[in-house]
Amino acid sequence: MLKERNIPEEWVWRTIDKPDWTNVGIDNNNHYFKSITEHEGRFLHVVVNQHASPKNVVTVFFDRKARRKK
Q1: What is the 3-state secondary structure (H, E, C) of 47-65?
Q2: What pLDDT sits at residue 70?
Q3: Which domain holds residue 49?
Q4: Number of structural domains in the chain
Q5: Is residue 13 part of a domain?
Q6: Closest CA to 33 of 14, 50, 52
Q7: pTM for the model
Q8: Distances (CA, A) of 16 to 11, 50, 54
Q9: What is the SS3 assignment for 22?
Q10: Per the domain annotation, does 21 fall within a domain?
């Protein structure tokens, strides 16, 4: 999916390692958000299932609805 969406793996790791913010969704997965300056500051949204062993990235996409938290 990363290739189809033209998302470098490095951006995914950057989002997980140093997110702008996180939350736990109703799906009980961790949701990480990070503004990617190389992509016009759009927010990358990475969903990780923390309960799987090993942890599993569920999906990665640029979230048009995400807004910077104040």
Answers
A1: EEECCCCCCEEEEEEECCC
A2: 40
A3: 9-62
A4: 1
A5: yes
A6: 14
A7: 0.89
A8: 9, 12, 15
A9: strand
A10: yes
| pLDDT classification of 68: cutoffs 50, 70, 90 | low
Residue of 1, 5, 2, 63 lying closest to 35 (CA atoms): 63
Contact 37, 43 (CB under 8 A): no
Location of structure tokens 């807004």: 67
Q: Classify residue 70: in a domain, yes or no.
A: no
Helices within 7-69 (DSSP H only): 9-17
Q: Which amino acid is at 47?
A: V
Q: Would you say residue 53 lies in a domain?
A: yes
Q: Model confidence over 10-58: pLDDT tens digits? A: 999 999 999 999 999 999 999 999 999 999 999 999 999 998 888 899 9
Which pLDDT belongs to residue 2? 87
